[in-house]
Design brief:
Helices cover 44% and strands 15% of the residues. It is α+β, with helices and mostly antiparallel strands. It has two domains: 117-407, 2-Layer Sandwich (Chloramphenicol Acetyltransferase); 415-618, Chloramphenicol acetyltransferase-like domain (Chloramphenicol Acetyltransferase). An eight-stranded mixed sheet has the order 13-9-8-10-11-12-3-18, with helices on both faces. It has a six-stranded mixed sheet with strand order 14-20-19-17-15-16. Strands 1-2 form a two-stranded antiparallel sheet. The longest helix is centred in the N-terminal third of the chain and has 23 residues, at 132-154.
Length: 622
């Protein structure tokens, strides 16, 4: 099956039917007509940027070897020029020359588990309650808020967003609802059901590992009121007492090939087909979790973020997840709450807008009285579990617990200053934090490392993301000078400014569509598409080193005191997410325990010390 530029085959017949309904003649609003197409950067510019990015990471002799290889690739009439022309041709014929390639390569072809490795979690400030009654009240409000947001998307009432004065592509918003990832043998697929002739009108609620189909629209098409939803959640609670039910959701946490095989076994039974279909087609999922295991107040924020990310383990709430689902809202009995999302469809900025809407909506009273009409009982979803599926679940439980025990999550709120301090000194807050991260890594590991920060490409039609690479030459000079007592403060200040400005320039290039990483990937994939050997520059040791991202970072600036959390990209790396507020910054640092060289708590402690030292550099107390 072909949809856009993506080919789908070996799909289960039920999924095929969903895709066929997707291409119905119904017209959706155009969410990207006001933005230009994404440019293909000039080849020479990208190759020069690539070499500059390698300079802080490679010794001179290796760099010279790579430089010769890059020059050969980029010579007039050479292979690079041929592949560049292929990308430019692709740009003329498609909505976006790189987004589908990126989603396919980075997400759908990845075989790693979605739990920890891919799906980001956003943990929000704990609500002021600690009992199940308040949990259901808040969950009702949250559902109503999400439905209100969806109505604005469907009715074209969502205002166009802007970045640096430029309108952003809004097409991701309608894709957030009624969509799910489907596991496949070699790569996954994304099924979207919201464009079908009869759009789904239900959500999935899961509690104590038991899934329920909850209709959230009345027969006349109106949205249910909060009180209607609340009464339905009470019914679900009364039907979902702790039992020996198998945690079916655990299966979705597996290695994608393993889950794909189990998925096909699962769907052999008609009962399972129907239940899985309800989960996949639902507008979104709501996970009603038991309380976060509380050890100390100091570690609660870390535990809370970890539980939203992966459920806390098979003896906790991991069975309440369906990791393939695009949107999963988590509401705990202890006031914890947040969101888990699947990245093939969703991205940080649209998710942040959704959460901002939820928080604003939750401050308002319920605007509607519940109509006096009987409501249908929420439908419990049942599964037929044979010996093979039972074995699959047991294996998935073991593997998920191993993965969860391997991940160290450290969340903290840095309160000494926020984004106003660097702004006061005419420094970009994000670039300032990026330099601080590189300095912190150097202090822990005595070297700089390849790092990627995520930049949005939504200022282009169908745009997704680009990487901003660090360190830069300017950052390396600053890092080497900072702890050298023989270097004067004024010199360190100047080096800091140069490092921050260099990173800001890389950011500006990425926002103009002139980043280097998606372009390099496009050239590599274009060679494969043309049936050519992979070019030597991508087989070079330098390319492997430069894309072994030991520091995966992400800024999700929101109006709320939330923090994003996800796992590192490589076994010996870190992931650092941050949310800068005016006078404080929320951080989440993760690392894998299996690597003896990395430690999330050490990195977090060093980052705090580094930020304090940089504050002292900018504003000496003596």
């Amino acid at each position: 099956m072909i949809l856009g530029n993506m080919i789908f085959k070996n799909i289960h017949p039920r999924t095929c039917r969903a895709w066929l309904s997707l291409v119905s003649p119904r017209q959706e609003p155009c969410f990207y007509s006001t933005v230009p197409p994404q440019p293909v950067p000039p080849l020479t510019q990208t190759l020069q940027g690539y070499l500059r990015a390698l300079e802080p990471l490679l010794p001179p002799e290796e760099l010279n070897h790579t430089r010769r290889m890059v020059q050969e690739f980029g010579r007039p009439g050479g292979l690079g020029q041929q592949l560049q022309e292929g990308l430019e041709r692709r740009a003329r014929l498609t909505k976006n020359w790189v987004s589908d390639l990126w989603v396919q390569w980075a997400y759908l072809e990845s075989r790693q588990p979605l739990a920890v490795h891919s799906n980001p979690a956003i943990s929000l400030p704990r609500r002021d309650y600690n009992d199940w009654r308040s949990q259901l009240l808040f969950a009702s409000k949250l559902i109503a808020a999400v439905l209100d947001f969806r109505a604005k998307v469907n009715n074209g009432q969502l205002p166009v967003e802007y970045m640096r004065g430029k309108p952003l592509c809004m097409e991701l918003y309608p894709l957030l609802f009624s969509s799910s990832r489907i596991p496949g043998p070699k790569h996954d697929y994304v099924a979207r059901y919201s464009n079908s002739r009869r759009s789904p009108t239900h959500i999935t609620v899961v509690r104590n590992y038991q899934f329920f189909q909850l209709e959230v629209y009345n027969s006349d098409g109106s949205r249910m009121t909060e009180s209607q939803i609340h009464s339905q959640l009470h019914r679900i609670r009364s039907q979902s007492w702790k039992t020996d039910k198998e945690p079916m959701g655990i299966l979705t946490s597996e290695h994608r090939h393993t889950w794909g095989e189990a998925y096909n076994r699962l769907l052999k039974a008609k009962l399972n087909q129907e239940s899985v279909q309800m989960i996949e087609t639902g507008l979104f999922s709501l996970c009603l979790d038991s309380p976060v295991m509380r050890i100390s107040d100091e570690k609660y924020a870390s535990r809370k973020a970890a539980q939203i990310l992966h459920g806390g383990g098979t003896y906790s709430n991991s069975g309440n997840r369906w990791f393939d689902k695009t949107l999963q809202f988590v509401v705990g009995e202890d006031g914890s709450w947040g969101l888990l999302y699947e990245q093939a469809t969703a991205e940080g900025p649209p998710i942040a807008s959704l959460l901002h809407h939820i928080e604003e909506y939750c401050e308002m009273p319920d605007p509607k009285r519940a109509p006096l009409v009987p409501l249908p009982m929420p439908k419990k979803l049942y599964f037929h579990i044979d010996r093979d599926i039972k074995r699959d679940i047991e294996q998935a439980k073991q593997n998920l617990d191993i993965l969860i025990n391997d991940l160290d999550v450290h969340v903290f709120n840095f309160k000494r200053f926020g984004k106003e301090l660097p702004k006061k000194h005419n420094l970009s807050p994000n670039s300032f934090i990026q330099v601080a991260l590189q300095l912190s890594y150097f202090r822990v590991h005595s070297e700089v490392c390849p790092a990627c920060d995520i930049a949005s490409q939504r200022m282009f039609r169908g745009g997704r993301t680009e990487y901003i690479r660090s360190p830069t030459n300017q950052a390396l000079k600053f890092i080497l000078a900072f702890d050298d007592r023989t270097v004067a403060r004024e010199a360190k200040l100047e080096l800091l400014r140069e490092a921050v400005d260099a990173y800001s320039e890389l950011t500006a290039q990425a926002l103009r569509g002139h980043g280097i990483d998606r372009h390099l990937l496009g050239l590599k994939l274009q060679a494969i598409e043309e049936g050519l050997s992979i070019p030597k520059i991508f087989m070079d040791t330098a390319y492997g080193l430069a894309t072994h991202w030991k520091l995966r970072t992400g800024q999700v600036p929101t109006n709320t005191d939330s923090v994003m959390c996800f796992g590192p990209l490589v076994p010996d790396g870190y992931a650092v997410c941050y949310n800068p507020q005016a006078d404080h910054v929320h951080f989440a640092v993760t690392a894998f325990n299996c690597c003896e060289e990395t430690n999330a708590e050490t990195m977090a402690r060093t980052l705090k010390e580094t930020l304090c030292d940089l504050q002292e550099l900018l504003q000496p107390t003596v």
